[in-house]
Design brief:
The chain is of the alpha+beta class. The protein contains 4 helices and 8 strands, in the order αββααββββαββ.
Length: 231
């Protein structure tokens, strides 16, 4: 019996001669878009630990460690140059605030005082003194004791205030005479010495300034008087 073999089937695979350039460009654009999106969202989630106020902090307050807390914040541009990072905490403790900072607010570098600050419990009182009677080296930031001599009790001098900080010294330069013998006292001009004193002592210091002869005794760092300026 004869058998007839069926002819075998051959499948021809067609390989494209060239790849569509537009398809490749589309794939590349999609890949770039995906990668760019991942990078963007990754950077958007990057935050840094910065210092914020843990409570209400008034101007003139000396910062303590427990006054501050840490919050994570994304900073860029101008904000990045103003914020204070957690790593700077030790350097900030002991600084004086020039501005009030509310609880939860960022503590930024401009909030830190660079000079003398009148605290919330202090006032500034200006005392006029004879220009040629002022210690010539008296300057902003010096500490003085406020002494007073009542006119009706000659020889009796009392301490009105143990310590006050000189906030400012202003001079009428055009009217200064050299030495006490150079003309009358009216020609010597005045110097206004502004002191930072506790608010509770303001009335007593003011009364002494108006009624009595006031002497400002310049204090050294050890609180010993080394010079005087007399009204």
């Amino acid at each position: 019996m004869a058998t007839t073999a069926a002819p075998g089937r051959w499948t021809r695979l067609t390989v494209p001669g060239r790849v569509d350039g537009r398809m490749l460009l589309g794939v590349a654009l999609v890949a770039v878009s995906v990668i760019g999106g991942l990078l963007f969202w990754g950077s958007a989630r990057e935050t840094v630990p910065v210092l914020v106020a843990a409570r209400e902090l008034p101007a003139g307050h000396v910062i303590q460690r427990d006054d501050l807390s840490v919050a994570r914040l994304k900073t860029d541009g101008a904000l990045a140059s103003l914020t204070i990072s957690e790593s700077e905490l030790d350097a900030v403790v002991g600084s004086t605030l020039g501005n009030a900072v509310h609880a939860g607010e960022l503590v930024v570098k401009p909030d830190l005082a660079t000079g003398i600050v009148i605290g919330p419990k202090d006032v500034a009182i200006t005392i006029p003194v004879e220009a040629d009677a002022v210690y010539p080296g008296l300057r902003r930031g010096d500490s003085v004791a406020v002494l007073a001599t009542p006119a009706e009790a000659e020889g009796l001098t009392v301490t009105v205030l143990d310590r006050a900080v000189v906030y400012d010294v202003s001079l009428e330069h055009g009217r200064i005479a050299i030495g006490r013998d150079s003309g009358s006292s009216e020609d010597r001009g005045l110097t206004n010495v502004t002191l930072i004193v506790p608010r509770v002592e303001a009335e007593r210091v003011t009364q002494a300034t108006v009624k009595w002869t006031v002497t400002l005794a310049l204090l050294s760092s050890e609180d010993s008087g080394v010079s005087e300026s007399e009204r």
